[in-house]
Amino acid sequence: MAAHLEKKPTEERNRKSTQNGTRTSQVQWGRAWEVDWFSLASILFLLMFAPLIVYYFIMSCDQYQCSLIDPVIDLLTGNKYLSDIWNKTPTLTYRAAGIYTLWVAFQVVLYVCIPDFCHKFLPGYVGGVQEGAVTPAGVVNKYEINGLQAWIVTHVLWFANAYYFHCFSPTIIFDNWIPLLWCANILGYAVSTFAMIKGYFFPTNAKDCKFTGNFFYDYMMGIEFNPRIGKWFDFKLFFNGRPGIVAWTLINLSYAAKQQELYGQVTNSMILVNVLQGIYVLDFFWNEAWYLKTIDICHDHFGWYLGWGDCVWLPYLYTLQGLYLVYHPVQLGTANAIGILMLGLIGYYIFRMTNHQKDLFRRTNGNCKIWGKKPEYIECSYMSVDGTKYHSKLMTSGFWGWARHFNYTGDLMGSLAYCLTCGFDHILPYFYIVYMTILLTHRCIRDEHRCFSKYGKDWKRYTSAVPYRLIPGIF
Ligand code: NDP
Predict the structure, then answer these.
(1) 294 C-alpha vs ligand 1 centroid, how far in Å?
(2) Distance from the CA of 437 to the center of ligand 1, in angstroms?
(3) pTM (predicted TM-score)
(4) Pick from 140-149, 382-391, 446-455: least confident
(5) For residue range 73-100, what is the model confidence (pLDDT) as tens digits?
(6) Where are the annotated segments for Disordered (predicted)?
(7) Which pLDDT value is given to residue 24?
(8) If you take atom 37 of ligand 1, which residue's CA is the nearest one?
(9) Fewest CB atoms less than 10 Å from the CB: which of 24, 152, 226, 239?
(10) How high is the pLDDT of residue 32?
């Protein structure tokens, strides 16, 4: 959200390296320069176990009807050996490799070759060339925002194929799910490794690179801040949005098609998952320009965490509810279905409005109305690596006055709604809410740590004014 700052009147920018005694910490905002043992241990754990966790979840659906306990019982009782499970796992196929290559190539073409036209006719939609936030080195990148267009084109083609052309089955994703997992892993590791090599030998912006000297940390958390090929192919924007998030709704549609094929109907729980997650995905693309100001783009460097995570973790684990419902078609009672729908919609409303309030506040530099009143805020300042001093504001009105990350709270309510569609017979679909709670709580703490390094004592004033993180009065 800092990008608009360089557009402020010049009196608000102070090119002198004026100091308030906090310069050293302020110029180091962004990803860590030094690695503590806890971060290193977590990173090694994730590098070793995250791919296994994904495999375990998908395999347990394929071989154990989504039971997470049965494979362990089989192994412990000697009923099965690891080799039995592995030998039953579908291998990489030429067909899956072909599908995946075509899919990624198609998304690259949509991203690079077709400038956005949606913003020309959709009122309120911000697309086309947009600026990102100012980086720690003081760079402002330009982005071609055309994700909504890519999503629409892809889905129109998907439905056209399902209803008219019949070139492939709408269940194609489900039918090749495990072979596609191997392809996604190959791409995830390839792009992360390439990003690491690129960071060393031909970075896009050398000043925004960070080297901790620890190979594993650099591989995981990334060296380059905004790696690019050419002027427009931005790794972070491409890999996070497409193929991962465009695929999310297609994967859910494929699960719905599989239910139809297997049981002759699509259950209301599957419809709820498709609708609620569809709203979330569409919201992401409608607000893609806003996304340029979120932590992923503004603060995270591009490493395995984003590269592999976007290719494998996101499409495979964010869609577990739909996968589960293929194996266990749950038909919810009307009251339960309405309750879950309401929880999902209220969560979405809080998530969107909180994000919108901050966006509006920052875009207008506080000259706006939040809940009908002029917003209250705390003035703060920070410094980029070249010593330029910037001014900013932290809002204490609206949802931002209730808690410091109420947008995460809304996100968590929505996540819980997805899980509840699956009933209570198995824990597998609840992985998502557990994961999101850990992710967003950790993210909240990480962000606050970064904000403290960035704003120093101004951040302390803010946390005194808004003392809670996620739930007012509790946390
Ligand atoms: P935020 O949108 O909350 O952005 C945090 C940044 O906003 C801070 O670093 C600071 O940046 C600025 N800020 C903090 N407090 C204030 C304030 N009071 N007034 C004005 N600006 C403030 O975080 P994220 O980017 O993490 O999240 C964006 C959305 O994406 C969230 O709704 C989250 O739920 C969602 N999300 C979803 C994920 C998923 O996997 N589904 C993963 C991650 C996020 P600055 O330096 O500009 O001051």
Answers:
(1) 5
(2) 15
(3) 0.87
(4) 382-391
(5) 999 999 999 999 999 999 999 999 999 9
(6) 1-23
(7) 36
(8) 411
(9) 24
(10) 61
Q: How far is the CA of 75 from the centre of ligand 1 (A)?
A: 43
- Taking the C-alpha atoms of residue 470 and residue 475, their distance in angstroms, rounded to an integer, is 6
78 CA to centre of own chain: 40
CA-CA-CA-CA torsion for 159, 161, 162, 164, nearest 10 degrees? 100
Among protein residues, the one whose CA lies closest to atom 26 of ligand 1: 295
Q: Which two tokens stand for residue 432?
A: 């998502």
Tokens for 362?
């920052």
State the Cα torsion 410-415-418-422 to the nearest 10°: -130
DSSP string of 90-141? Answer: ----HHHHHHHHHHHHHHHHHHHHS---HHHHSTT---EEEEEEEPTTS-EE
Pocket of ligand 1 (CB under 6 A): 1-2, 294-295, 351, 355, 358, 362, 392, 394-395, 400, 405, 407-408, 411, 443, 447, 451, 454
Residue with more model confidence, 386 or 184: 184
How deeply is 298 buried, as exposed, middle or buried, from its count of CB atoms within 10 A (0-12, 13-18, 19+)?
buried
Q: How many beta carbons lie within 10 A of that of residue 9, not counting itself?
A: 7
pLDDT digits (tens, 9 = 90+) for 94-116: 999 999 999 999 999 999 999 99
